[in-house]
């Protein structure tokens, strides 16, 4: 899909490839630790890990040496130099696409169409994730999906249905465990043209995704008394705090607020807060505040403009991220990204599968599209991301071809076609 | 919201009631002073027994004195006591200690839109009943391995049944049609599952009231888009914290809503969102409405309904007709101006009042 890389391949330098790799590797280290000016360059963005075998270039590249990799994947936020100055090709990047169930396939098709219209250098690899029983009786995702994900490191996922009483845990949980997706990032920006009582919302919720109240450890102590265990660990708290500050720095966000309930849960949220404070010491350019959960909720519904980046443990994150989604118009227009260890990132739409409108061309692809835009930004392809986002917002603002949930009565294909047209016009 | 058959009638000596007053920190002391002023002015037959609780101390002597005083008097009015979480974890939250020792199991909050206050949503009328003693606030935490902390959330059948009973009886008494249970039973299957099961059991005994349930994240989303759909909501402790703060924000802020904590034998009244308000303390800009309305709720509990309604009407007149608002709801009035206005209106109604 699309044209081959414009820049000359470095295939002729095969014998020099090791030198090339480590040369670029040291360049990464320089960018990581070195000149601060560069780090704040808007061209340099948070991307996946330096796995150059994802590049469709002619030479096979060994993976980055472990020591460097640890440094580079610190907090899951890694820099890649701006593509124009990269020494490797500006070729097609592979993304694993998981269409999902219900309306998943149609909105995935819509997104692919829009990307094609924008001529984005993305090669889609479609995979299916249905739980299969692996050796040893443990449920796992199909090996070809895992292999594709490990290779491409970036995924785009549609809604997956959670079957009740199917014997296996929810697919989302399986994906989370397989790729250690520890951070859930949800940027909530008010959409011009989709009116809600709240305008000017512009905040990001970063939620710890692996532990906390959702550890799933529950016991019946005696008949009638149940205890659920909320687990907070130092490592996970530190990891999420580091990711939050990296995100804030890379996306020019001015402040990070830790949300907690340390007055009641002294030890657990106290630990979380301490780790956030420690990490904040290393990021003096980003303002760090802490606020109680109830104060955040109270102020959020009165004046959401006072918040910027919010970082919090699992349960508060769940509630707050959905609260913020409600502020901008619901799950049908909210993007979401999950960042994992080893540079894996899966972007998804968080709404349900909507089986009642599946296959009827009525679905709204906005959530998946905005998640895909988030993905483009994560990969460093800001131009394409901005182009597609502008086209999408223009279409919604125009109000001529809106899907049913946005207040119009057009079909999904008409909506998509309108966005494609605008994208092409923007070129 | 006192359910008369639940609580014994409060003690009365010489026709005057004695109520424990805990000033707390931040804006608590000044607001409670205003409450006392208004009560004195309206000749309310209530004497306040003031018990100070110093939140900076590590011993529990202060709060135990307060608890004894409340046991003695049966009723209390309190400001929020600050919890400094720089202190060691063995120093528990004083407010929490008070609630669990007195077994004040039900926290009731009534959020309704006031015509005089400008908000994004109108016509909100939600009653929130929140379990007040267990759940995530059990304060049972331990560190088995360094760097790994476990916090226990306890849900018991007895307490869940108790709070569900309370919710449904209150709904019936107030003529409410629908009770919604807020939970997260898809993730915490045993804990919130038990809570939900208890609510369903109690609901079966009240066929005239519709019962449904909603997951907490969906609830918050619905609250910010369509809060008019909710009627009565019942939930465990932590979700209650979130939902009550969201609703308070929807109707205009923490300065407007009073809250009550009911137990079998005791009742403690305070502002619904339990803020210390350290940043606006002693500046004469805090909104006295919440604390004054909490005082009115207390008077209703003591069956001094005439006094309660006269003060309440004066407050609402100030808010809705005179539009004298403090800074938190977008006005320029000071606390003392609002209180003076309330007292003036009480006087103008012709009842017996003391001098200004």
UniProtKB/TrEMBL annotation, chain A:
Q: Which InterPro entries match?
A: IsoCit/isopropylmalate_DH_CS (IPR019818), Isocitrate_DH_NAD (IPR004434), IsoPropMal-DH-like_dom (IPR024084)
Any one annotated GO CC term: mitochondrion
Sorted UniProt keywords: Magnesium, Metal-binding, Mitochondrion, NAD, Oxidoreductase, Transit peptide, Tricarboxylic acid cycle
Q: Where is the signal peptide?
A: none
Look up the domain of life of the source: Eukaryota
Alphabetical GO biological process terms: isocitrate metabolic process; tricarboxylic acid cycle
Q: Please name the PANTHER family in this protein's record.
A: DECARBOXYLATING DEHYDROGENASES-ISOCITRATE, ISOPROPYLMALATE, TARTRATE, ISOCITRATE DEHYDROGENASE [NAD] SUBUNIT ALPHA, MITOCHONDRIAL
Indicate the family of this protein: Belongs to the isocitrate and isopropylmalate dehydrogenases family.
Query: What name goes with this protein?
Result: Isocitrate dehydrogenase [NAD] subunit, mitochondrial
Native species: Amphiprion ocellaris (Clown anemonefish)
TrEMBL record, chain B:
Which coarse location class describes where this protein primarily resides? mitochondrion
Q: Which domain of life is it from?
A: Eukaryota
Q: Does the keyword ATP-binding apply?
A: yes
Question: Which residue spans adopt a coiled-coil conformation according to this UniProt entry?
Answer: none
Named cofactor requirement(s): Mn(2+); Mg(2+)
Q: How does it assemble?
A: Heterooligomer of subunits alpha (IDH3A), beta (IDH3B), and gamma (IDH3G) in the apparent ratio of 2:1:1. The heterodimer containing one IDH3A and one IDH3B subunit and the heterodimer containing one IDH3A and one IDH3G subunit assemble into a heterotetramer (which contains two subunits of IDH3A, one of IDH3B and one of IDH3G) and further into the heterooctamer.
The entry sums up its family as follows: Belongs to the isocitrate and isopropylmalate dehydrogenases family.
Query: Could you identify this protein by its name?
Result: Isocitrate dehydrogenase [NAD] subunit, mitochondrial
């Amino acid at each position: 899909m699309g044209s081959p890389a414009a820049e000359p391949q470095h295939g002729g330098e095969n014998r020099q490839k090791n030198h090339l790799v480590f040369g670029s590797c040291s360049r990464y280290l320089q960018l990581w630790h070195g000149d601060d000016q560069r780090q704040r360059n808007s061209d340099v963005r948070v991307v996946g890990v330096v796995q150059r075998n994802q590049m469709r270039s002619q030479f096979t590249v060994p993976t980055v040496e472990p020591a460097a990799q640890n440094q580079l994947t610190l907090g899951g936020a890694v820099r890649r130099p701006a593509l124009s100055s990269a020494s490797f090709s500006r070729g097609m990047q592979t993304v694993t696409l998981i269409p999902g169930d219900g309306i998943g396939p149609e909105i995935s098709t819509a997104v692919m169409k829009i990307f094609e219209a924008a001529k984005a250098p993305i090669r889609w690899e479609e995979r299916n994730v249905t739980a299969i029983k692996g050796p040893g009786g443990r449920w796992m995702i199909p090996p070809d999906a895992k292999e594709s994900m490990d290779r491409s490191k970036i995924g785009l996922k549609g809604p997956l249905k959670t079957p009740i009483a199917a014997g296996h845990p929810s697919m989302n949980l399986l994906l989370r465990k397989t790729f250690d997706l520890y951070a859930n990032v949800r940027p909530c920006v008010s959409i011009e043209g989709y009116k809600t009582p709240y305008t000017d919302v512009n905040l990001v919720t970063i939620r710890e995704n692996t532990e906390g109240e959702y550890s799933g450890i529950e016991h019946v102590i005696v008949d009638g008394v149940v205890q659920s265990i909320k687990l907070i660990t130092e490592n996970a708290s530190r990891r999420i705090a580091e990711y939050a500050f990296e995100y804030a720095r890379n996306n020019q966000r001015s402040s990070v607020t830790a949300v907690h309930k340390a007055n009641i849960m002294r030890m657990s949220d106290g630990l979380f807060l301490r780790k956030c404070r420690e990490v904040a010491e290393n990021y003096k350019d980003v303002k760090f505040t802490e606020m109680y959960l109830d104060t955040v909720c109270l102020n959020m519904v009165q004046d959401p403009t006072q918040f910027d980046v919010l970082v919090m443990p699992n349960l508060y994150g769940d509630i707050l991220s959905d609260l913020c989604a409600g502020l901008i118009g619901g799950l049908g227009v909210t993007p979401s990204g999950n960042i994992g260890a080893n540079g894996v990132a899966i972007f998804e739409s968080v709404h349900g599968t909507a089986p009642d409108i599946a296959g009827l061309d009525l679905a709204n692809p906005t959530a998946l599209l905005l998640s895909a835009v988030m993905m483009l930004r994560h990969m460093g392809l800001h131009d394409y991301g901005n182009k597609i986002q502008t086209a999408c917002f223009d279409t919604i603002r125009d109000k001529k071809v809106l899907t049913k949930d946005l207040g119009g009565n057009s079909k999904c294909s008409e909506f998509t076609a309108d966005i494609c047209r605008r994208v092409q016009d923007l070129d | 919201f006192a359910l008369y058959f639940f609580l014994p009638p409060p003690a009365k000596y010489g026709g005057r009631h004695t109520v424990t007053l805990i000033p707390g920190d931040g804006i608590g002391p000044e607001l409670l002073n205003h409450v006392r002023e208004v009560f004195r002015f309206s000749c309310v037959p209530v004497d306040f027994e003031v018990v100070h609780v110093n939140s900076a101390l590590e011993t529990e002597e202060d709060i135990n004195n307060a608890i004894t005083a409340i046991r003695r008097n049966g009723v209390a009015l309190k400001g929020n006591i600050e919890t400094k979480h720089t202190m060691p974890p063995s120093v528990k939250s004083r407010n929490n200690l008070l609630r669990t020792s007195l077994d004040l199991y039900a926290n009731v909050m009534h959020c309704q839109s006031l015509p005089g206050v400008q908000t994004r949503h109108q016509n909100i009328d939600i009653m929130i009943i929140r379990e007040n003693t267990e759940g995530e606030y059990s304060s049972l935490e331990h560190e088995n391995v360094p760097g790994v902390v476990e916090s226990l959330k306890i849900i018991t059948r007895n307490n869940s049944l108790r709070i569900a009973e309370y919710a449904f009886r209150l709904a019936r008494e107030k003529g409410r049609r629908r009770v919604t249970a807020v939970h997260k039973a898809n993730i915490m299957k045993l804990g919130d599952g038990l809570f939900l099961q208890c609510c369903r059991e109690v609901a079966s005994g009240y066929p005239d009231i519709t019962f449904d349930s909603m997951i907490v994240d969906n609830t918050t989303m619905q609250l910010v888009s369509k809060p008019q759909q909710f009627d009565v909501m019942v939930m465990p402790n932590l979700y209650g914290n979130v939902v009550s703060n969201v609703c308070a924000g929807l109707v205009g802020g923490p300065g407007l809503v009073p809250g009550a904590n009911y137990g079998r034998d005791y009742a403690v009244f305070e502002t619904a969102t339990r803020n210390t308000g350290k940043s606006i303390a002693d500046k004469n800009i805090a909104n006295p409405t919440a604390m004054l309305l909490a005082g009115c709720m207390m008077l209703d509990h003591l069956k001094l309904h005439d006094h309660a309604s006269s003060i309440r009407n004066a407050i609402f007149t100030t808010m809705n007709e005179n539009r004298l608002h403090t800074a938190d709801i977008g006005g320029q009035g000071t606390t003392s101006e609002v209180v003076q206005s309330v007292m003036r209106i009480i006087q103008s109604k012709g009842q017996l009042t003391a001098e200004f």
